[in-house]
Amino acid sequence: MTRCSRRDFLRTSGAFALAGLSPMPRAPWYDEVRVAVVGLRGRGGDHVEGFRRLPGVRVVALVDVDAKVLAAAAKKFAERGEDVLTFADLRTVLERKDVDAISIATPNHWHSLQGIWSCQAGKDVYVEKPVSHNVWEGAQLVAAARKYQRIVQAGTQCRSSHGIADGIAWVQAGNLGRITMARGLCYKPRPSIGKVAGEQTVPAHVDYELWTGPAPLRPLSRKSLHYDWHWVWDTGNGDVGNQGIHQMDLARWALGETGLPRRTFSVGGRVGYDDDGQTPNSQLVVHEYEKAPLLFEVRGLPRDRAAQAGDWGKGMDSFLGARVGVVVHCEGGTLRIPDYTRAIVHDQDGKEVRRFEGATDHYANFVAAVRSRKVEELKGPVHEGHVSSALCHLGNVSHRTGAPASTKEIVAGVAASAPAAEAVERLFAHVQQNGVDLAATPLTFGRPLAIDAATGVVQGGDDVQRLLRGSYREGFVVPESV
What we know:
Number of strands: 19
Oligomer: single chain
Strand content: 15-25%
């Protein structure tokens, strides 16, 4: 059994907020917050521009293990006549006293360790979602934030939407009756990443050893080093932990749950093509909370086989008007969250009766808390990001410790949960419409994980415990004591 709580989970999550702990005052440099951004592709570019546009904030350093990516980012600064330092290794930046905050947009397997290192170096941290690659290291990051009294914001920017917050509060006030279920959706096109024969050559401009960091140092065995790491277990968490962390977080927020569920299980697989990816492209994760269940659905294939021949982005399924979003089911209707800024109320007949809109800047919220030194001002505090990240990991642990099962076996296994049974039937229909023969290519019925919601203890054998905690390479070890 692994204890992710009292000591390693609850103490470092809700207790942090409830205690109202605020970091000690720092030196009076409030006229300028100096930020270093690590990881410059994709989300990293948004981090750079997000902080650059804020008054009283300056991006003073760029960090990336890809020399071409680093040079391209630095060139933009030079073209604007702005000074910026460049580095390949974050550890060099952490030694500098002229950097106040670290903004992390690296692959998932680096998030917690870089966040912990930054806290230990006295830096505040903005860390992309998920905040961890496994449950244990997320708790270690929360513990580091608490110990070193750092401001640490999770990149769950939907938390800065007052439209969503108001909609959730309106439903939680009972305006639609009792909440019966919260459903997260990630119907996002994920075509095959291809299949290669043997070891691939890592580009010479990439420091692959440093890119790999805490993960096992294995030969590159996929076509693309960048981005497609999301679909490999050593470095990514599939779409549950990639896009889905946002919607999982909103669904948990809507339910008003602050910790882990009593039970988690997964049904899914990587079907419809044979490629070098490992994570599911079709998946249902069920978290059984005491008051109401939280369901999460991943669909990377389009609506049917015919749609595979066209633009997958235009051919994806939707559920009650949402593709990447949340539907909160209530006795008197639904609250639909279709994007990052809106919450729309529908009655039992599907008619829109009210909507809430608007959002503020998540980066600006982080900077404001850095200046005030008040953790409670953060919209996406790391302890909340940790709990929602843990939900993603639990779903994947269930999947990875499960086994292929027939449709009959899966139906029987989920029969006790009406919401799960309905979602499983739709999942079966979806993959079959994409030409998948479930008799020849069965889905995996994940191992049900029993969890003591009061203590955070997850039951299971060595295989479960290994995945809850992960392992690390020498030199890149998440410390037992932060």
